[in-house]
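Query form — protein Purple acid phosphatase

QUESTION: What is the three-dimensional structure of this chain?
INPUT:
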Amino acid sequence: MKLLLIFSIFIFTFASGHEYVHPLKIFSDVLPSIEIDLKPDVIISTNCSQFYEPGQYCNVTWSGVTNPTESDAIGLYVPADGDPTGSVPVQYALAVKMSQSHLLHGCGWAVFRLINMRQSFGFKLIQNGMQKPRIIAVTQPIPNIIPNQPTEGHLTIMQDSSSVAVQWISGGSDAQHVQYSVVVREQAVPVPKEKVLRERLGIYEWSVKAVSTTYSAGDLCGYPAMTVGWLDPGFIHTAVVSFEGIAAGSLINYRYGSEEAGWSAPRSFIVPPRPGVRPDPPVRFLAFNDIAMSNSLLFNSKCPPYCPAGLNFNENYGRNSTKLPKYLEQEEAHLALLIGDLAYAMGYGADWDYFGEQFESAFTRWPLAVAMGNHERDWPGTGDAFLDMSSDSGGECGVPTSARYRVNSSNSSEATYAGATAHIYSSSSDIGLDIREINSGVRVHAATGGRSRFLLSEQHSLSSILRQHSEGGSKGGGSKGGGSKGGGSKGRSSSFNYVERHQKKTEQVMKGAKALFYSFDRGSVHFIIMDSEMPSGLDSPQGRWVAKDLSYVDRTSTPWVVVGMHRMMWAPATWRQPVLGDLDNEERLQGDLEELFMNHEVDVVIHGHEHAYARSCMLYKGQCLDEGPEGQRLQNSGWRAPVYLLAGHAGAGFTHGFPSALPEWVKAGYQERNGYLRFEADFNALRMWAISSDDGTVMDEIILTR
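ANSWER: The structure tokens for Purple acid phosphatase are given below.
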């Protein structure tokens, strides 16, 4: 029983609502008391003399431990010579869980899988790991001989529908490039897998030089991101690939890197349909949220005492995310909406590397449209919507996300990010709202400058928004059919003084990424990505922007409007707590946006945050306006209200937040099935399939028509 209790700390655990304890937090808590007491009779060694290949396996053996305990641990540190009293390991596991001989004989072995973190590696044996920790043995450093190798590649969306941004990570700022070539094909024919493999061997015709950026610990906002969880991110390389004039459905073959640093594996993506061009094929896109990552530690836990063939992924909060890549890699999509809560790094920088490595093969197949989630953005004093009450980002305040997943720039020579604090060697500058025209003519919100520093200048407007909520919600924000049991809105209690709490912060200099919201067109769909972590009322910059953006939509060219935001606007939920609760935030977003979405006939709203899947009817103020019977396939002859899709089931641990009886407006709901959404849209119909990443089956589907 004692062993189970100790090991359970290694897994992400629930605190309350959507707050989670990172498995490395326990190391953070004991760092002030850790001692270095190397014992000459205790030996720890590895068969890895150098790191030369991503995904390399290292056998670690140890012996000579006297008085072994159940809390002894093996930690992997990067860099090897870093101060273990000032930083946490990037991986660790209990020695007794890796080798049952540890308690009996003070010896054992384990297998670790290493990915490229651009620095040296070293293993340390920590006795009494979670109680009175002492480092009693260390391995020789494992030098990294490929620190500048391109890794963690992915594509990100551009405003211009005829270009895409390619991003990757390396350990150096020396020039790197994207090389690519085009294979023109019939527009409406999907790319067969075997043909892709053959054509990837072709000659690359063009080359684009990348811009290199980075961020420092000083750009972040708090603990542990700035301190014990900090890991140098290396350099983020970004190059824009243009395919203007290339037929939709054509194949772009590419690779990234350089002759000196090495090249990535061959990659490819499909040219998307042009906005409003009816001869082009339907646009295919995916959506998924709340992913997490599975730490790369491997160990032997299935049979005593040693089983070389019995290596298994260590169970952790993101273990279900290991099922997702193999399905995503098979999807022939034009883009994907990744709507918040990506890696769940929460201030422990190594997790961004694990996440990027785990999904590289999928995320290089189609561009991502990324939204901020609470575990990327929320931090006190940064201007978010939670009145300094949420610290879910672990001090990251959106900076790593903005830097690593670039959006909203149409100029490859600039390092312009929507709300980003990442920068090209700049220190700090005032950051402000920038409404600019991009090539496509779509107005987008972006941020200029480097590290964010601004005074909140809209005190009166924001106070008005907060006052509306404290007095029961703005016009149109209430619900007649929900209530707390079903996730509906009855108006916010006036006992919590939002205005007073926020006015105390209005003259404060703020730090962190600004709101990340933007829009773009692909094929027959106008996409809007919102930032649910920032104020969104019509008196806020984001609210004014989305109202204007919706008024500009040409429904002849893009008849469908799809909105993505991280937190739920309508989803079955039970957690109520002022400011932070699921039901409270549903009411906030309903009050801010529901009337606007109705007036502009938004078709689909996709969100996550609750780790489950649910689909509403065509919903307005808690009432179904369509006639589709519960549990049956939804087919409609026209628009009546938005359909709300909860897609927070990509891999992070299930939250089990549904009420015992689902409200009538929920037409499908699953709390313990992982998966993602697949869409296809032409000018007459929008189809959605909810795909299970447990077995590949279709969990749910709808067809909307116009």
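ADDITIONAL NOTE: The radius of gyration is 25 Å.
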